[in-house]
Write a structure and sequence with these properties.
It is a single chain. This protein is mainly alpha-helical. The protein has a single domain, classed as ABC transporter involved in vitamin B12 uptake, BtuC (Orthogonal Bundle), CATH 1.10.3470.10. The chain is 74% helix and 0% strand. It has 14 helices and no strands. α12 crosses α14.
Amino acid sequence: MKKIGLFVLLLLLSVLSIFVGVKELSLTQLFQWDAQQRLVLVTTRIPRTISLLIAGSTLSISGLIMQHLTQNKFVSPSTSGTMDSARLGILVVMIFFPSAPLLFRSFIAFLFALGGTLFFIYLTRFLPAKNQVMIPLVGVMFGNIIGSIATFFAYQFQLVQNMSSWLQGNFSTVMKGGYELLFLTVPLLIMVYLYAYQFTMAGMGEDMATNLGLDYQRIQLLGLSIVALSSAVILIMVGSIPFLGVIVPNLVSLRYGDHMKNTLVLTAVGGSIFLLICDILARVVIAPYEIPVSVVVGALGSLIFITLLMRRRWT
């Protein structure tokens, strides 16, 4: 698909997302400024669509950064223990600071996510770099260990039900006044764009990047901090969404190449498109009921992920 086609598709899906739901919206009544229709539009539909756009682009960009920093196409926040570490941080806040505001929860989740990601990067130093499957496999196992620890303490403190809300990504509860923290990721995406060239150099490997004059450790810490903070904010606001950070950057790089400066915007647009499609499917499959979008993303994402693995093996 041509680049302009992606933007047109994103616009069409955004409009469709606004008009799909249990409560039917009518263009005629909206133009007549019907009070009930306006309330639904402003309170739920527009915030939900904006959340989908931001979450999709943020998660896909986070995956792109992780793949450059680890030189592995199958690493993302969901396959490196980042999301699970952030979830453990949220549990700690729920136990010791139950009435803490969202910003404080996000900060603690960010610290845990950054710590877990740094430990994963440390582990990758002992793994064979040529084995593309081994590194994400270790990341998934590391994430499962962190998740098991979180689940154990959640049982001990009877917080399993509260924790379950962080396990599944769901946009049905997004409303005006309760999603604005997601805008915190927008300046992070701008920062990624400004440092895209440095991240591309870091993707060549530590020795090559250092020889080219790059402060590799500083760029690596910057990239991991952006990924950790973005993942923590997304997890707190809409929950965990698997595979998005893996498959979208891979699909974009297959079509448009690996230069981060050229593919950054396309990756963000692709992530938003994929998440919008999954969310619309989640709303219409068993309408008027709705299934969590993470279920749809997991089903479609796993199929694409397996296809990417097999394709790499065949080539």
